[in-house]
Amino acid sequence: MATSIPHPFEPHPQAAGLTNPFQARLLRIEDIARSAELISTVVPLQQLEAASASVPWWHYGFESSFGGVALVAGILPPCHLQTQEHDGLTVVLGYGGEQRVRQESHEWSCQADDCLILNGAAYCCDTTAVSALLCHLRPERLLRTAMVMGGLQHCPAAWKDLMQQSQCRKLSADSDGPPLQALVRQEISLVNQLVDASPVLIERLQVDERIYRLMAAIMLPDLLLDSPLDRLNQKDRQGRDTFDELLDYIKFNLAQPLNLTMLESYSHYSRRALQYAFKERLGCTATQWIRNQRLDQARRCLQNPAPGDSVAQIATQCGYRSLSLFSVDFQQRFHVKPSQLMREARATRPPESR
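Structure (tokenized):
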């Protein structure tokens, strides 16, 4: 495969007005395969293509890594890219232009001064001529960092859930609180100043740790409270979080159609975060847990049937639209036919209550 030799940064007509914190280090790349290789040092690309096949490819790029942070900075032409699923978090800092990102059922517009945090689910992106920076962070290190910041020995389950949720933060939103995203950008600028002059100093200043601490504070609002440890301990004692509220919602709506799309809309969890939370906290998928809740409720109803109740009515009340499917699932779970359980329950009750 032929590759081009990178050239020093020279403004391209389409890149007019776009700036980047690593602009002086950007090299021009004229081969799209080489561009894909560079970007893949942070996110695994499945596809990269120019928006217009008739325009010669150009791209200005730079990549570096320090501590637990890998980053790619660049100015790109209008293009389309698609990633594969991977482990880790991708932080996208916009410096100009627009990136329209679609991941699972969510869509974001990442522009200058925006910070987009993406979980490891695959996503696709269409851009204008754009200047951006991509960073790869490790979720397990973010959690360890957050625990140190909060003075905790055990990681709250809600934190693990939040680490699976993608989000977009606006630089302007920091006006009501600590300027966290602005501080992240300052740390990135510091890397630019030290990457050649004193790379050892980047390590000794623990710039990567400062970036992890700032990103932990952005993703976990509990760390911004006046007394995060006291608030978290109170939450643990209460045993309540947004996932518990979601489980309550499911229990009260078993008669209704329930699927990941509906739960995603209700809870604001992403589909990937929902799948992770159910597996991590309940040891099963959301579909399996909902089915078991419906079957448990059906068993209680069959063991205490009201006069006039039928197996079909109880199945419908518990969210089943197919009586035959309900019978199969019930027998697999409890090793008894639902009709037999109802007959035995009625046979053991006093005549006046049947």
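Residues 26 and 61 are 5 Å apart (CA to CA). The first helix runs from residue 32 to 39.
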